[in-house]
């Protein structure tokens, strides 16, 4: 009699920067013959990649209804749908999914649950059913090491911790390091991690409870890139820490005709006309909400740099329409060397195009992996969460140029242009470009779980 495959339940936080890596991890598990139940909400599932046909027998989406709560806009099911201030109400609603989770677990035979930092309520449910837990961290080893042991997240000494403590490496990082938050970053992340929100649970408390309950921590990392920080994480966490690899996304064919303002053919025809490794791809993802001055300064920098660029720009919430999202006349002045594509673009296809030579982006971990798997030169402008630490490590390793900022975090077009030209065309940046290309073999390694 054939043995039933292991059944693993996947429970990510409702942010695409989390759901996408969880999706890729799920695909890898299914390829290894493990049955996967991936839990999310209906609208999020619609926006995730399609399950590859060959994995459908083992990979299943499970839809949970997202309860309505005060402060959460109708139809908002992920952080991308919200302002930063509204995210706390998504956590309130997410926590109310516990009854659906308990009902699902009760009727299934589950061998393991792999979950994110946020669903602390799953701990007691899993314990009742004697189901072991693995916390999967979608963040780099450097941020896991920086925040350290779960006791430091909620212990008594935490009451005396201030944002200033985040501006230098913590005491448990004993080797020389420049990796720390800038003051303007530290103030924001301190509030986001340690301050109480509408859900009555800080992110630090969620993380601490999860780390104390799980049997192992899986990290999306590899020792070849950030081995020293992975080693710190293995020392400060009590349980086993498993490097599952970088899990780079795999390019799949899909319909790309919904690029707003341009057909996909127009974009790729334009890319085909550019020189190899000459184009800067500009994208700041879905989580960072750029204000008008930031968008306009980026535009000014691209114009000053006078380098071929492709800018994937989501229309900001403050913009009336696409034209309002850019400085007056910008597109006409840069038409000879640049393209702005509003809305969704086939990012993996673009990054794999031979004319792309560099990226201007926020230094989120997922985007670093997507970019370095093609060996592109990096210009980083960190905006939220872990991005500042990621940017410092890239610079420390000689893999990126970081855009200069003032003490309060502001930047201007001249700063953008200077960083772009340094990374893309200056003689001074040649070693950086070579090191980035050397990273391709590491960051493109699919590996096997």
Automatic annotation (TrEMBL):
Keyword check for Glycosyltransferase: yes
CDD domains: GT1_Gtf-like
Domain of life: Eukaryota
Keywords for this protein: Glycosyltransferase, Transferase
Pfam families (alphabetical): UDPGT
GO molecular function: UDP-glucosyltransferase activity
Recorded family membership: Belongs to the UDP-glycosyltransferase family.
Protein name as it appears in the record: UDP-rhamnose:rhamnosyltransferase 1
Lineage: Eukaryota, Viridiplantae, Streptophyta, Embryophyta, Tracheophyta
């Amino acid at each position: 009699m054939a043995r039933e495959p292991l059944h693993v339940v996947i429970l990510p936080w409702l942010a695409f920067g989390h759901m996408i890596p969880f999706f890729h991890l799920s695909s890898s598990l299914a390829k290894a013959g493990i049955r996967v139940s991936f839990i999310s909400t209906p609208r999020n599932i619609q926006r995730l990649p399609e399950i590859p046909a060959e994995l459908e027998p083992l990979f299943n989406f499970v839809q949970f209804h997202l309860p309505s709560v005060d402060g959460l806009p109708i139809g908002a099911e992920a952080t991308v749908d919200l302002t930063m201030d509204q995210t706390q109400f998504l956590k309130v609603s997410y926590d109310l999914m516990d009854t659906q989770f308990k009902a699902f677990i009760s009727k299934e035979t589950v061998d393991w649950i792999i979950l994110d930092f946020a669903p602390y309520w799953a701990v007691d449910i899993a314990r009742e059913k004697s189901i072991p837990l693995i916390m999967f961290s979608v963040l780099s080893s450097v941020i896991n090491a920086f925040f350290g042991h779960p006791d430091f997240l909620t212990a008594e000494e935490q009451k005396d911790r201030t944002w200033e403590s985040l501006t230098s490496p913590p005491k448990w990082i004993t080797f020389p390091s420049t990796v720390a938050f800038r003051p303007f970053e530290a103030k924001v992340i301190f509030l986001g991690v340690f301050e109480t929100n509408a859900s009555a649970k800080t992110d630090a408390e969620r993380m601490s409870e999860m780390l104390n309950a799980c049997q192992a921590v899986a990290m999306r990392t590899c020792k070849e890139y950030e081995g020293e920080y992975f080693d710190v994480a293995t020392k400060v966490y009590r349980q086993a820490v498993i490097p599952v690899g970088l899990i780079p996304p795999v390019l799949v064919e899909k319909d790309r005709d919904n690029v707003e303002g341009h057909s996909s053919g127009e974009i790729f025809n334009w890319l085909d006309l550019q020189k190899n490794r000459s184009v800067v791809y500009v994208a700041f993802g879905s989580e960072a909400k750029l204000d008008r001055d930031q968008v306009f300064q980026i535009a000014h920098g691209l114009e000053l740099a006078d380098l071929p660029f492709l800018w994937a720009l989501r229309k900001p919430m403050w913009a009336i329409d696409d034209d309002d999202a850019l400085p007056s006349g910008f597109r006409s002045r840069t038409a000879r060397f640049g393209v702005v594509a509003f809305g969704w673009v086939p990012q993996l296809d673009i990054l794999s195009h031979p004319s792309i030579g560099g990226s201007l982006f926020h230094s989120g971990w997922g985007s670093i992996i997507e970019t370095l798997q093609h060996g592109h030169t990096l210009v980083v402008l960190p905006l939220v969460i872990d991005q500042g630490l990621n940017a410092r490590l890239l610079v420390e390793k000689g893999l990126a140029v970081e855009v200069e900022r003032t003490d309060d975090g502001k930047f201007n077009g001249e700063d953008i242009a200077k960083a772009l030209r340094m990374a893309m065309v200056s003689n001074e940046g040649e070693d950086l470009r070579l090191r980035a290309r050397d990273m391709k073999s590491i960051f493109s390694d699919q590996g096997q779980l």
